[in-house]
Every structure is written in structure tokens, then in C-alpha cells.
Amino acid sequence: MRSRISLIPLLCLASLASAAAGPETATDWSADKAQVLLGKYCNTCHGGKASAGGFNLASIAAADSLTSKQTEWNHLLSRVRNSEMPPKGVPAPTIEDRQAFVLWLETNLRRSACAAGPAPGAWPMRRLNRDEYSATVRDLLNIQVDASHGLPADGAGGEGFDNAAETLFISPIHAEKYLEAAKEALEYGAKDPKSRAVFLIAQPGNGTTPEQAATKILDAFVPRAFRRPARPGETERYMALFRKALLRGDSFDRSILLTLNAILISPDFLFRREEPNAAADPVLASDYAMASRLSYFLWGSMPDKELFELAEAGKLHAPATLTAQIERMLKDGKSREFTERFVSQWLGTRELGRDIKPDEKLFPEYYDAEIQAAIRYEPVLFFQEILAKNLSLLNLIDSKFSILTNKLSKFYGFTIKEATQQPKVLNLPEGTHRGGVLNMAAILAVSSYPQRTSPVLRGKWILENMLGTPPPPPPPNVPTLKDNHAGSPALTLRERLEQHRADPTCATCHNRIDPLGFALENYDVLGRWRTEEEGKPIDASGQLPDGTKIAGTDDLKKALLDRKDIIIRNLTSKMLGYALGRGLTLNDSCTVDQIVTQLTQNDYSSQTLIKGIVLSMPFRYQPRARTATITSKKP
Amino acid sequence: MTHRRLILSRRTLLRGAGASLALPWLEAMSPAATTSRVPKMPVRMAILYMPNGVREDMWTPAETGRDFTLPPTLTPLANYKGDLNILTNLWNAAAKGGDGHYVKTGGYLTSTTISKTLGVDVNSHGISMDQIAAKAMGSATPLPSIELGTAPVTTGVDTNVGYTRVYGSHIAWLSPTQPVAKEIDPRNVYERLFRACNPGKSSGKDEVLLLDQVQSDARQLRQQLGTADQQRLDEYMSVVRDLETRVARAGSGKKMNWKPRARLDAAAKPDAMPEKHAQHVRLMMDMIALAFQTDSTRIATFMFGNAVSNEDFTFVDGVKGAHHSISHHQNDPEKMRQYQLINRWHVEQYAYLLGKLRDMKEGDSTVLANSMILLGAGMRDGNKHDPHNLPVVVAGAAGGRLNTGQHLSHTPDTPLANLWMTMLDAFGAPVERFADSTCPIAGMIRS
How far apart are CA B416 and CA B433, in angstroms? Predict the structure, then answer.
């Protein structure tokens, strides 16, 4: 089981193909070969005089078209990758050819998109998502209540996170809830001297007029709430509201709270927005914009005093300052917000307990509040530890420690003297079959059915979340996995999947998916170690598409470590997408490449990743002005 | 909105639709003669969406017309047989490609093909029929519409098929680029209804001041924005403006000729967010019933679960698994048996709502009789993700505007949009056309 199985050396970026696409690699392909494939399968509808859907192959025939016609190629890529083209009913390339073509095209488009180096992408205005809203109100008013409890959850876009600008929609319910939440939060804060000291910093009396007190409060509050200096006349507009309230007979407190309430439902508070760049070249984001970019990335909340001060002094962009701030921010407890949101969405564990729930009757052990919390937080706290101590990101694949409670280690089947009721960093004894995220209960549960484990789901989970190479959807008319029927001899799941893989249509993907999942069969639905199931010994063996034989989790982790650059690249893409709050573009992959290079040169130390992202072009710059986006049309 | 105008617009509609109908027939069709005696009741409309389709051989009655036997899955509706329209052979042509679930959910009430995207430029290319109704009639009630569900928006994007899961979590679209978020906590729904039913008791004046201020903020801000950002801001401003209108209307008794049709039952306030799915669904059914009884709103959409919902259904006797897994029954008789039990459970919840609404008297009539309550799914067999012959049943006569107690079988692949058009007409918000609609559903509107 533990013998080192010879893995093909030189498994680096190009081996994405062997892990992901099948035997053929991008290097086997050329522009000529691609054109032959297009000519063979697309020419009838998109060649000569035929331009179905307004597309003709002639437009991308030129040798430099990968650079000059990126839009057209990108469109073609997505149609072919999604198996939408060629359409049903006409001859189509084999799955292998399709995947090799797609890989060739992706690689080359990326290469040409990066020819001129990284460029900053759009930075669209976006609403604070529910979590950001909650944390921002908390920090702005210094209150310890969740003001967002009535808001609907946010969906995800881009790289799969709920902070993506493109999917932060507005519903009628938002207007209602923002109004209520602001009122509640302000009234709550007004009752607590500790909160008042932060946002109600003046009182009328002792020679101070209500007007003076309100001005003082607003002068401090507006820039914090809007995360930038107040504009000329801006505070005055809120003073007008304050006076209106005072004039109709409201008390000072009531008047000022009403005024602050207006600020908390203003789009300047609820939306993150930056001054647009009017220049023809990318420019550095303003210092205040940078303070928000940093704080919403690493804290999921507004900038604190120190960030605001650095912004005011115009010092924030200095790389040494940014580096020091990253280190400071990661030490702050608020960085838990970041790890929790990032990890639970990247690894999909947020759905645990929501759409994915282990069967209560079969797995009552899961329905214990302490165990559930320990399971849910293990990957989050683990990632937090890696970041805080600047450990290697390869710990995610395999590690000698985890973050366990007494109960969770017992649940896993071993005892550690040092374990307590609180989660704690603990070294894993030999033979625990733990280490890295793959052996954590949260991941194993979220990639299982409620009633049973599924090698297919687990294999797919690894391809999607670790390697970043999700298998395509099953082709149309794919024969489904044959179930056991009465009368026929009962087949094990392994036997049935073998039958399934005998069909070449199914084999292409399932050869990739199944062995990865089978290697984790020693873990039950809740991630507990098992050596047999229903009296039969567990068989965790399998063969990767490149011929590597693996058996069990140790071999799997070794195989994944051999593909560490693919995994690190995927993690980098995910985190860059999270940090930018949008889906990545082809050009962003140049930034990803640069950061991956930095990581390989720095022993994959976790803070290299954060620093690489923060210091990258897309994170620090605004794109050049697009003429179409700058208008001053009145509504 | 007067009854008179409504009828006029229906005439226009019929002419527009190309029906060559003689005027006397139209006069006869108008219920003018009876409305003078019978107080007019508002028409309500609810859409109950089931994820993952149904077992097809147990859903459709064998006979058509008025003399039909309820098939096994629909037997919980035995007490409401006379209230039903069971519709067969409708489909959503726009949802035939794409993928198994998202196109069939996001585009269910729009009859359009959603854009394939992981997030950028999400677009349903249509406004959902409930929101069209809300735009036309929403000002008659404190809340234009309510959107309910049991599960929060599903996290993440589906990189397998290339869609953001936002699509699978919404059926209501305020605009083609604005899916309407659902309320999933029954207590929050109750509190919303409570505020709606008690106008003037809250500080409506403050709210108007605040919402005024926001709009002036936004006008300042808007001038500094690029077009893409302006669109986002405009979306916020439009919901703010609508809220202000509602608050202002509620604050002044003159502007709004509305009062609750029934007292909101304080005992009906849910305690906490229910943990069990069955209880959760029941409470949401109660909230829909309360909303309709009090006339807080006349439009509701409800998602039993998001697309691909894998809700654990072992709480139903005889079911040993989760919804989506079982819906992929692969023609295994045992799984199909469980699939049908899950479908049947959904029908039971629907029947529960119908029962509640029928028990709510309204003059000589009942809230159910004045409603259209639809139960349906975006696909037929979940194993095949089949968009043909969608399962759909509508209960209630929309205040006498609909014939009921019948199974109507259409030519295969009749647009589902024909039903949306018919329901909008019966609701009092007629449209000339709805997406790919061809004509109203024959035999449904009372002639």
C-alpha cells in the first residue's frame, strides 16, 4: 500500500492534460491540426458562404488570429468546450479530440493574452454582500449584533464566491431590510456607551449647540461610512436632514440617528465604488480605494483607523507598507471572516447542513452541535493556521497537523492527550489516516450522498475543487449507471462503475473521476476510517489515466503532490477571483502564472500568495478608461 | 383599477390576439350583470414550484374532460377535484437546451432561454409572469408580491455545466437582469405581513424622509458613474422608489383605498426558523394563506426547493434517500416508487394550502374560489430532464373567471406561455402575448 509507485516525472503544467483531459496533451496539437478539425466539423455551417449565427471560419483563419481575433476564438472556445457545438445530430469530434482541441486553444489564447503582460480588469461597482454588510455595520458602529440577519443570502458568480460584483443583485426585499437593519443597529448602538464613543462622539450642552454636535458627528461618520473623504457639500446635505428632524421637534438623539440612518441606506455606503479612471492608461487605484480593496479582501469589512490614516497620508501603495499591512491584518481576528468565507466556498463545505445533510437516521453521530461545529470549522481553522504562521500551502494536500477538538479526534478514532473542548492545533500521531483537507470530515461528507459514499462525487470534487479541472457534463444519451435489478447478480458499485467505463463514451471522464474517488473509500459518509463495508473489505485501488496505480489515501495524496503546481494554480485563481470580487479573464491568468512562479520560488509559503495577489496589477490598478463607460447622462 | 377597465382591456386583448368575436358575445361574457349584486373579490395567484420533476406514469389522468380519475400522485387532491384544471402537453420550448436544471428553473416563469454564464451578464431575457402581474396590479395591495422558498440561494457556480447557481435558485424576475430574492424564514414573512396589515402604526414619515434623502444621494452619485455601474444603481433606486411609494401610500389613508380583508391572526406567528423541511413548508403554506386572506398581497411564488435540490426525504414513509438522487431513478422500480412518494408529498402540501384557502370564507365564496393556485415543475421526468409535457395543475376559479373540474389535454408541445397568458388575463393583468404564447388555453377562461 505504501510503496512508492513510479509516477511519470515532469508532471508539471502540461500534465494538466494527463490529469484532466486524457492521454493527449496540448503539445501534440498545432494551429494546423486545429484548423483541420474545424474544417472537418464546422465548415458545413461556418465555412465558404455559410455563416450560421454570424460566424465564419474565414474570420479566424489568419495565423495571428489568436491575438487579433480573441473575441471570436473565445466564443468558439466556450461553445466547443460546453459541447454545444457541433450541434446535436451532426458529426462531432471524439471527446478526446474535443478536449485536446480545447486545451490547445486555452493554452494558446492565454499565451497570446499575456503577450503584453498583465492588465487590470474592470472594477465594477458592487453592493456589500450580506456578510460584508454585517461586518461593516459592526465595525462602523462598534456593535456586536448581526445587522444582516434579515437579508437574503447572496448567490455566487465568477470563481464561485458570493462577493462577485456580477451576481450581487438587488431585490425589493433589500430596500426594506436595509431600512430596518440600519434603524435597529443604530438604536442598539445608541444604548451602549462603548458604541456611542465610536459614532456618537458629541453631545449638545456645555456651550455646544446641537448644530455643532451634529456637525462633529457627521464630519467623522461620513468618511468612515463612505470609506473615503467627504465630498464638498456632502456633509451639509445630511445636516439639512438633521435640521429638518430637529425642527419638527425630534430630540437631538432622534434627529442624529435619523440622519445616520440615511447615511446607512445611501448607495455610497451600501455599494463599493471607486472613482473611475478617465485616463488612457491604467492608473493606481486611489489610496482610499486600496484601503477598501485590502480590508474587504482580508477582513470582509471596512478599513480600520490605521488603513484610513495610511490612505490619508498617501502611503498605502508602497510595497513595503502593503506587505506590513498584510501581516498585520492576517494577525487580526477579523481575518477569520476571510478564511471562513473563502474556504467554505472554495471547498464547498458551506453547503454542509444546507443542501447536503448526512442522513439523520443512518448517521445520528453527526447531529451533535459540538461535532458539527468541529467538523465545519476544521478546514477553516486549518487554513487560518497555515496563513497566520506563513506555512506551506502544500499542507492543504498533506499535513502533519490539524485543528481538532477532543470530541473530533475521538470521532476520528484516536485520542490525543493535549486535545481540549476548544479546537486546537494538534500534531497528528502516526497511523491516524489524517492530514490535509482531503481527510477532513467536512470534505468527505460534502462529497457524499446523504446515505452512502460516492467515488464519483468524491472524484469530481477533487477534479473541481483541488485541480480546477471539472469534468464536462455527461454527453447526451449517455447510458446511465446500471443499477442492481432483482434477479441479476448483485454487483458492487465498483463493478457497476467498471461496466460503465467499458463504454468508451463514459470512460473518457470516468477514467479520470473514479480512481480519485475510490482512493477515499476508506472514509465513510462522515469521514470516519473504515476497512470494511457491509462485511466486505474496502478496495481503495485504482489507476489514473496516465497509468499510475494508486491504492488508498496515501497514494492519492502522493499523486496530488506530484501535481502540486496544478493545485496551487487552481488555489491561486480561486483566491485572486475572491480578492478581485469578479470572474477572472484570460488576461488574469498571466497574473496567476506570475504568482504561481513566486510561490514555487518561496516554498509555497502561504503569505506569498496573499502578497502576490495584493501586489498584482489587477489588485492595485484601475483599467484604462473605456470611452463607452464614461457618461454623465442624467436619469 | 376598476372592474370596468379590466373588462375593456380584455376586449382589447382578444382583438389583439386576432380572435374575430362579435360584440354581443363579448357583452355576454362580461359578468357586469352579476357584479352589481355580488361584491367583487380580488383574484389571487400563487405559483408553487417543485424541483426535480415528477414520475410521469403516475401524474397524468387517463381520461380528459370533466370525467376523469385522479392518478395516484394526484389523489391527495380528491377533495378539490371540482376546483382543478389539470393541464397536459404544455412545454417550455425555451428550456429545451442548455442543461438539465438551470434553464428549466430560471426560465420557468419567463418562457425564455437564460444566458449561459457563471455570473457575468446574468440575463433571463424576460420578466416572470408573476412580476408582470405585480407591475400591473401590485399597487392595489401593501405588498406587490411575495417570493418565498425554503432554501437560501445555492452557493457556488456549477462549473460542470457552466451556469451560476443563482439561476436555479430563482423563478421570479423583476427585470431580465434582476432575479427576485426569496424570503425563507416564515417568521420574517409574518412580520412583513404584519407591517403591511398595520399601516400608519410605524414611523412612516421617517421612512419617507429617509427614502427621499437616498434618492437625492443617488442622483448626485449617478452623474459620476459609467453605464454599467449606473445600471446597478438604477436597480437599487427603483426598489427604493417602489418602497417609498408603498410607504407613502400606506401612511395616507386617502391615497390607498385598502384595508385588510381579515384580521392577521397573531397566533399564526411562527416561533423560529423550522429545522424540519415538512414543518418549514407547512409554515410557508400558512403564510401564503394568511397573505391572501388578509389581502396583503395577491401574488406569491414559492419554491419547494432550489433546482437540483437534494433535500433529505427520509421523513416520508418509504423514502430512503434525497430528492435529486432519487429523481435520477434510472427506471429502477424501487427508486421510481420512492420518487412517486416524494412527488405525492408535494401534492399533499399543495392540498393542505388549498384546504386552508377553502376554509377562508369570503362573502358567499372562499379565498380558494377567488384564487389560482398552481403546482408545477420545470421538467417532467427528472431522470430525463424532459422539458415536454410539464406537470401542471391549477386550482381555483379566479373569482369565477375560470372553468374548473377538468383535465385539459392539448396538442403536444403547446407553449406553457399560453397558460401564463391565460392566468394573467384571469388575474386582471392581460397581455397581448407572453414570450412564445400562441393563444389562451382553450376551455380554461369561462365563456
Answer: 12
> What is the total residue count of chain B?
447
Q: Is the peptide bond before B31 cis (omega within 30 degrees of 0)?
A: no
Provide the phi-psi class of A227: left if phi over 0, else alpha when psi is between -120 and 50, else beta: left
Tell me the C-alpha distance between B306 and B158, whole Å: 14
Structural domain ending residue among the three candidates A547, A562, A586? A547
Spatial separation of the C-alpha atoms in residues A535 and A462, rounded to whole Å: 28
Cβ separation of B214 and A267 shorter than 8 Å? yes
Distance CA A128, CA A500 (A): 46
**Of A443, A560, A153, A526, nearest to B156 (Cα)?**
A153
Residues B163/A164, Cβ–Cβ less than 8 Å: no
Partners of B188 on chain A (C-beta within 8 Å) are 150
Look up the domain containing A506 and give its range. Answer: 349-547
| Unique residue bearing C-alpha cell 458551506 | A350
Per mean pLDDT, which of A531-535, A601-605, B272-276, B360-364 is the most reliable? A601-605
Distance, in Å, from the CA atom of B267 to the CA atom of A96, rounded to the nearest integer, reads 63
Please name the member of A166, A176, A354 whose beta carbon is closest to the beta carbon of B151: A354
8 Å CB contact between B193 and B291: yes
* Alpha-carbon dihedral sign for residues B352, B355, B359, B363: positive
Cα distance between residue A572 and residue A575, in whole Å: 5
Q: Cβ contact (<8 Å) for B239 and A472?
A: no
Fold of the domain spanning B43-199+256-427:
Alkaline Phosphatase, subunit A (3.40.720)
User: How confident is the prediction for chain B on average, in pLDDT?
Assistant: 88
Pairing of strands B44-50, B371-377: parallel
Q: Place B417 in a pLDDT band, splitting at 50, 70 and 90.
A: very high
Query: Which one of A262, A472, A633 has the shortest CB-CB distance to B213?
Result: A262
Which residues lie across from B163 on neighbouring strands? B158
Let me know: does B331 contact B311? Beta carbons within 8 Å.
Answer: no
SS3 B149: strand
Structural domain count, chain A: 2
Ranges of chain A whose pLDDT falls below 70: 1-28, 82, 475-490, 626-635
Domain final residue, candidates A520, A547, A574: A547
Handedness of CA B83, B88, B91, B97 (dihedral sign): positive
- What residues in A contact B184, CB-CB < 8 Å? 152
